[in-house]
């Protein structure tokens, strides 16, 4: 009898062992199956200034490469075109009258649930670098370094999660890019899926380039839009109707 019990215990232990192994493999496969998400955003960057759509103003080869390897949206519109409210719509999935962020002045209502919070709760590592313009810190992020308000192009300040407020020397686009790459290469946990929000200040006004680009367009002539010399919005609308 004892030998039968021992055999039964051994069988149950073996079944349990392989069951645990199978569960671990399923969990591992599930982790690998969940996609990593990198959300890139330029500020006030009209499609006319992306050469993947039209190259009569400027060439943007790196953005064009992303478009060529992915897809372009040629029939799309925004829910809100203002800086901070547009970000609130993206983060909450709600229109502005529902999420409460209707302008750049008042802070974001943090009772809203954001999609980074949901991803974080489901095992994602989350990070944000760049411009948020919310009036408060982002929710649902393991790491963030954000510009206060609009931020500065040169030697900008950053609000950080772990270091308090810091000033970083250099040009803001380069700095935000370096922070993003440092997190990707040095800080993130490779065993977890991640959400990374990479948010630029450029090309928001004032349109100040990096010093190395000061002379880039001094010998270039750009076509003037037909409405450049109109004095009122009504005149511009009338011109468009006549075309």
In percent, how helical is the residue content? 25-40%
Number of domains: 1
Shape: globular
Mean pLDDT: 86
User: Main beta sheet, described?
Assistant: 6 strands, mixed
The ordered string of helix (H) and strand (E) elements is HEHHHHEEEEHEH
CATH class (first level) name? Alpha Beta
Give me the secondary-structure category.
alpha/beta
Work out the oligomeric state of the chains in this entry.
single chain
Low-confidence stretches: 1-15
- The number of helical segments is 7
Q: What would the CATH topology be? A: Alkaline Phosphatase, subunit A
Biggest sheet strand line-up: 1-6-2-3-4-5
What name goes with the CATH superfamily?
A: Alkaline Phosphatase, subunit A
Termini gap: 97 Å
Q: Tally of extended strands?
A: 6
Short recap of the structure:
The protein has 7 helices and 6 strands; from the N terminus they run αβααααββββαβα. By secondary structure, it is of the alpha/beta class. Strands 1-6-2-3-4-5 form a 6-stranded mixed β-sheet, with helices on both faces.
Describe this structure in words.
The protein has helices at residues 2-33, 61-69, 83-92, 96-99, 115-121, 172-187, 233-242; strands at residues 37-41, 125-131, 143-147, 157-160, 165-167, 194-199. With 243 residues, it is of the alpha/beta class. The model is unreliable at 1-15 (pLDDT under 50). A six-stranded mixed beta sheet has the order 1-6-2-3-4-5, sandwiched between helices. β4 and β5 (165-167) form a beta hairpin. The chain has one domain (32-209): 3-Layer(aba) Sandwich (Alkaline Phosphatase, subunit A).
């Amino acid at each position: 009898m004892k030998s039968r019990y021992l055999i039964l215990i051994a069988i149950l232990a073996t079944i349990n062992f392989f069951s645990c192994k199978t569960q671990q493999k399923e969990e591992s496969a599930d982790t690998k199956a969940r996609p990593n998400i990198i959300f890139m955003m330029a500020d006030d960057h009209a499609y006319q200034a992306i050469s993947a759509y039209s190259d009569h103003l400027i060439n943007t080869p790196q953005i064009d490469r992303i478009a060529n390897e992915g897809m372009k949206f040629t029939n799309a519109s925004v829910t809100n075109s203002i800086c901070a409210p547009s970000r609130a719509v993206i983060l909450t999935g709600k229109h502005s009258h529902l999420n409460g962020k209707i302008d750049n002045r008042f802070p974001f209502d943090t009772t809203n649930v954001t999609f980074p919070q949901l991803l974080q709760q489901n095992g994602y590592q989350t990070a944000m670098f760049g411009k948020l313009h919310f009036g408060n810190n982002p929710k649902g992020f393991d790491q963030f370094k954000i510009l206060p308000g609009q931020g500065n192009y040169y030697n900008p300040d950053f609000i950080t999660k772990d270091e308090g407020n810091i000033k970083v020397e250099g040009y803001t686009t380069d700095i935000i890019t370096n922070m993003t790459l440092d997190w990707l290469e040095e800080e993130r946990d490779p065993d977890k899926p991640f959400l990374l929000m990479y948010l630029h200040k450029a090309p928001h006004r004032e349109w100040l380039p990096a010093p190395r680009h000061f002379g880039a367009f001094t010998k270039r002539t750009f076509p003037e839009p037909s409405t450049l010399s109109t004095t009122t919005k009504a005149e511009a609308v009338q011109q468009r109707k006549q075309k």
